[in-house]
From TrEMBL, chain A:
Family: Belongs to the cytochrome c oxidase subunit 2 family.
Name recorded for this polypeptide: Cytochrome c oxidase subunit 2
GO biological process: one example: ATP synthesis coupled electron transport
CDD domains: CcO_II_C
A cellular component term, taken from the record's GO annotations: plasma membrane
Location in the cell: Cell membrane; Membrane
Pfam families with a match to the protein in the record: COX2, COX2_TM, Cytochrome_CBB3
The Cytochrome c domain, residue ranges: 310-390
Domain Cytochrome oxidase subunit II transmembrane region profile: 49-144
TrEMBL record, chain B:
Keyword Transit peptide belongs to the record: no
Entry membrane topology: Multi-pass membrane protein
Keywords for the protein's UniProt record, in alphabetical order: Cell membrane, Copper, Electron transport, Heme, Iron, Membrane, Metal-binding, Respiratory chain, Translocase, Transmembrane, Transmembrane helix, Transport
Species assigned in the record: Oryzomicrobium terrae
Pfam families reported in the protein's UniProt record: COX1
Gene: coxA
The protein, known as: Cytochrome c oxidase subunit 1
């Protein structure tokens, strides 16, 4: 790591005073542009929160992001210099050699030494650029000696986080694992409500990590390719179904860092943000203990029986986060792409059939196997809602115990059938 | 040489009955039959150009919808499912329906005229390769109306997402197969024509640069269209016949598709820019009244870009997580491409140096090409650096980059070429004032639309999203406003072209005094059958 800072310092030191002054002037010019633009936009945009817009990479929060930022700044300046070197003669020619000013065309059409020079100089510049870039590539790829490992799974359209065996996790105990869904209310997306400050960049359960620790991220996906991206970390890694990839980051400053899925993954690609909360290690340990305690509470809750109203109420919220993207809030689906649930045979027919679809999904379609993602209580609530919402009047209540029973029965029954 | 003396009323090539001069001028059958059955390179060139213009307007209309949706945060016009269909179809139709056929149209019209050949080598195949296009275009457009709507997995069609789609996805595969067939046939025709039918004395190194760039492009097409065909056929069999090329569950690999796709896709981006290089290298010397600087190095630069384009494909895949050695290899090769690209830009500037410049519409477009393509080259260089690319991949920065090379590169070179050769094609001058208005509106609106996208990408806005966080609102609004002007400006272009066809000041054989290629030795419009006796090139 030391060495990488070295080249950066050398760069900074090497750049002369005038260079620096130019940068300051440019920055000032840009920020006044920004003021003007913001004023323009405020006049034109609808109400609600407004966020400061950027024209450059987000402030780096990791060493890798900082190196990327430096690399980008360097190449930008190189491009700027080449641009001037090319455009000055071009602009001069366009002004000076106009026929309207009486310019006579000369007839030269070759100059071998010149052509050799302008082939070799770019090569030299490129080699100079490739060197630091190579160092950063190697640093990005070095996932060894991590302090902890988080497994990230991309789903249509949410992220699943799982803390893999870490010092202090008792042998055999289940790792902490949860889903992270978009938390922005639908009314904001549909412009019926003012948009909040973190519109589309907020989730129900952020990934929580300790600061100052090297965190290895291993990624995969359940359905299609997604890409886990946090700009401030300089991390963007595709999550590929059936394969495991890894990357790493180490955050120094506590804070909330926001990013998005960066690989087109279907209808709600724009709605699967990544939010990482970095907290000091002690706070992280407390959070982890809390997570474990909550899992015990949830287990106990699944053993109870509930009324239709209780389940339907919970189910409505869960439906909104898990199902509405495809089947739509009104249960009408999107004809041709996603079936309607309002009045559907499955959602009004026998409970077991309905359960099987939700638990095991429909292979080859966007309908996922929610059995792996949701608890018995959650599935019970969603089913109860679906069977009694809109025009559906099945009138029955699906209890967590029924889900558990079908889960086990289904596992046995579907095992041979799936081969 | 006087235009009419180039085409004297002398007997045709051996084996053909002698024709009289009148028949030379009125050789086309009338009405619809002329267009359906034509084997004449000029008619087919015209058909290609009109087809591509229609597709340009259609895909442009899709882009207007995209920008309208993106003008403000929130969902206002189209739901996310439709939005994805719009972006995918915009890309596919622009690339396969607008840019590529337009260049083939230029090749059809200009390659025989510039090498002094009477027609393309395989006129019937030429007819066939054009008439495949409307079939494919119809398939693509009609796929919007089937259940589930059009394919919505991006123009890159990555599985497994592509597997999830309905019938439209199969229609798209079929359409691309047809387009690919058409391209391959067109390319073979061009190669054979150039290699066998040049005028006496026209050695390879005396060919106009436009012909050179097309010769190389045609080889690229023949090399990579079958690769694309393989990729989408494998996808088709995965979708319907139980194979698992791209499915990990069956032992396949989704990333394999990306490798195969980009092995096609990267040469493909050069397929869309090399003929543009040719057009610009024709126009700049004409209006500088000075020979092209560094002809030989231009030819070598084009050839080495074409060669290198086979070695850089994985720079589109830096975030898939390939090994460090792979990332480094593809970074170095990608950076190398900047060298011949730079040489071309330097040569163009040197061509203008100490010329005698005038600024007719084609020249304006050609100069804008040089400036704006250079900016696209710079952003390409930025993206070539793996760590920076990982930050910028799949963001609006990439959208900005490829529009600088594809709109201000490919599309604006096509506009330059249309204005340059319209007098030759129609026999009339276009309206210069209107042309210049079209140019300035296009050039300014283009930059207003696409330059802010660099900022959006840097600040972290992903591409292919229908809605975005609030910090991206300002630049998106600016981009949308620019886009509407850009779109509307193209209607001026349409109007100018149509009125030029209908009439206008007679162009004469050679309206551009600095032009020196063979097509200007013919009358405007050229006789239906031209160069029936090959000219001789000194
Ligand atoms: C100096 C020359 C160039 C360099 C170094 C370069 C480099 C790159 C790189 C590294 C990317 C990948 C960006 C990413 O997805 O993260 C890219 C994307 C792209 N480039 Fe270039 N490029 C150059 C010129 C061109 C030209 C001439 C064209 C076409 C006429 C072109 C068309 C494209 C397109 C269409 C994409 C985006 C593909 C997609 O993801 O949909 N580039 N370029
Ligand atoms: Cu995703």
């Amino acid at each position: 790591m030391k060495k990488k800072d070295g080249w950066r310092q050398a760069m900074d030191a090497g750049s002369c005073q005038a260079w620096h002054r130019l940068r300051v002037i440019c920055a000032a010019a840009l920020s006044s542009c920004r003021g003007g633009l913001a004023a323009l936009a405020i006049g034109l945009l609808p109400g609600g929160a407004r966020a400061e817009f950027g024209i450059n990479l987000q402030p780096p929060a990791t060493i890798i992001a900082r190196q990327i930022d430096d690399l980008h700044t360097t190449i930008l300046w190189i491009c700027a210099v080449i641009l001037v070197v090319v455009f000055l003669p071009l602009v001069y020619a366009l002004i000076r050699f106009r026929r309207s000013r009486g310019a006579q065309a000369s007839t030269f059409h070759d100059n071998t030494p010149l052509e050799i020079v302008w082939t070799i100089i770019p090569v030299v510049i490129l080699v100079a650029m490739a060197w630091p870039a190579t160092e950063t590539v190697l640093a990005m790829k070095d996932t060894s000696a991590a302090d902890m490992t988080v497994k990230v799974t991309g789903h249509q359209w949410k992220w699943e986080y799982e803390y893999l065996a870490r010092d202090g996790t008792p042998e055999g105990s289940e790792p902490v694992r949860f889903f992270s869904n978009l938390a922005t209310p639908r009314e904001q997306i549909g412009n019926q409500a003012d948009k909040g400050e973190h519109y589309l960049l907020e989730v129900d359960n952020p990934l929580v990590v300790p600061t100052g620790k090297k965190i290895r991220v291993v990624l995969t996906a359940a359905d299609v390719i997604h890409s886990w991206w946090v700009p401030a970390f300089g991390v963007k890694q595709d999550a590929i179904p059936g394969f495991i990839r890894d990357t790493w980051f180490k955050v120094d400053e506590p804070g909330t860092y926001r990013g998005q899925c960066a690989e087109l993954c279907g209808v709600n690609h724009g709605y699967m943000p990544v939010v990482v909360k970095a907290v000091p290690p002690a706070e992280f340990d407390a959070w982890m203990a809390e997570q474990k305690a909550q899992r015990a509470i949830a287990k106990a809750a699944a053993a109870k029986t509930y009324t239709l109203a209780q389940l339907k109420d919970q189910g409505e919220k869960l439906y909104a986060t898990n199902c509405a993207a495809c089947h739509q809030p009104n249960g009408k689906g999107l004809p041709g792409a996603f079936p309607a649930l309002d009045g559907s045979k499955v959602a009004t027919g026998p409970v077991d059939g309905h359960l099987d679809v939700v638990l095991h999904g429909r292979p080859g379609t966007a309908m996922q196997a929610f059995g792996k993602q949701l608890s018995d209580l959650e599935i019970a609530a969603i089913l109860t809602y679906e069977r009694n919402a809109w025009g559906n009047r099945a009138g029955d209540v699906v209890q967590p115990a029924m889900v558990a029973a079908r889960r086990n029965a289904g596992a046995v029954a579907s095992a041979p059938a799936s081969n | 040489m006087d235009a009419h003396s180039a085409n004297p009323a002398i007997p045709g090539v051996p084996g053909h009955p002698p024709r009289d001069y009148a028949e030379e001028h009125h050789g086309a059958p009338g009405g619809l039959r002329r267009w359906l059955t034509s084997t004449n390179h000029k008619d087919i060139g015209t058909l290609y150009l009109w087809f591509s213009f229609a597709m340009f307007l259609f895909a442009g209309a899709l882009a207007m919808l995209i920008r309208a949706e993106l003008a403000r945060p929130g969902i206002q016009l189209v739901d996310p499912a439709v939005f994805n269909q719009l972006t995918a179809m915009h890309g596919l139709i622009m690339i396969f329906g607008a840019i590529m056929p337009a260049f083939v149209g230029f090749a059809n019209w200009m390659v025989p005229l510039q090498i002094g050949a009477p027609d393309m080598a395989f006129p019937r195949m030429n007819n066939w390769s054009f008439w495949l296009l409307p079939a494919a275009g119809t398939l693509l457009i009609s796929s919007f109306f089937v259940p589930g709507g059009a394919a919505a997995a991006g123009w890159t069609m990555y599985p497994p997402l592509y597997m999830q789609g309905g019938i439209a996805y199969d229609m798209t595969i079929l359409a691309i197969h047809i387009l690919g067939l058409s391209s391959i046939m067109g390319a073979i025709n061009i190669i054979v024509t150039i290699l066998n039918m040049r005028a006496t004395g026209m050695t390879l190194m005396k060919m106009p640069l436009f012909v050179w760039t097309w010769l190389i492009t045609a080889y690229l097409l023949v090399a990579v269209m079958p690769v694309l065909a393989c990729a989408i056929t494998m996808m088709l069999t995965d979708r319907h016949f139980g194979t698992h090329f791209f499915s990990a569950a069956g032992g396949g690999d989704p990333v394999l598709f990306q490798h195969v796709f980009w092995f096609f896709g990267h040469p493909e981006v050069y397929i869309m820019i090399l003929p543009a290089f040719g057009i610009v290298s024709t126009i700049l010397p004409t209006f500088a009244r000075k020979p092209l600087f560094g002809y030989t190095s231009m030819v070598y630069a084009v050839a080495s870009i074409a060669f290198l384009s086979f070695l850089v494909w994985a720079h589109h895949m830096f975030t898939t997580g390939m090994p460090a050695a792979g990332q480094l290899f593809f970074m170095y090769t990608t950076m190398l491409i900047a060298v011949p690209t730079g040489v071309k830009v330097f040569n163009w500037v040197a061509t203008l140096w100490r010329g005698s410049l005038t600024f007719e519409t084609p020249m304006l477009f050609a100069i804008a090409f040089v400036c704006l393509f250079t900016i696209g080259g710079f952003s390409g260089l930025v993206l070539a650096l793996v760590p920076v690319d990982i930050q910028l991949q799949d963001t609006y920065y990439v959208v900005a980059h490829f529009h600088y090379v594809l709109f201000s590169g490919a599309a604006m070179s096509i506009m330059a070429g249309v204005y340059y050769w319209l007098p030759k094609w129609t026999g009339h001058m276009y309206n210069e004032a209107l042309g210049k208005t079209h140019f300035w509106l296009t050039a300014i609106a283009f930059n207003v639309t696409f330059f802010p996208m660099h900022f959006l990408g840097l600040a972290g806005m992903p591409r292919r999203i229908p809605d975005y966080a609030l910090q991206f609102a300002e630049f998106n609004l600016i981009a949308s406003l620019g886009a509407f002007v850009l779109g509307a400006a193209q209607l001026l272009f349409l109007y100018n072209v149509i009125s030029c066809i209908r009439g206008g000041k007679p162009a004469g054989a050679k309206p551009w005094e600095g032009a020196d290629t063979l097509e200007w030795t013919l009358s405007s419009p050229p006789p239906y059958h031209s160069f029936t006796t090959p000219p001789t090139v000194r």
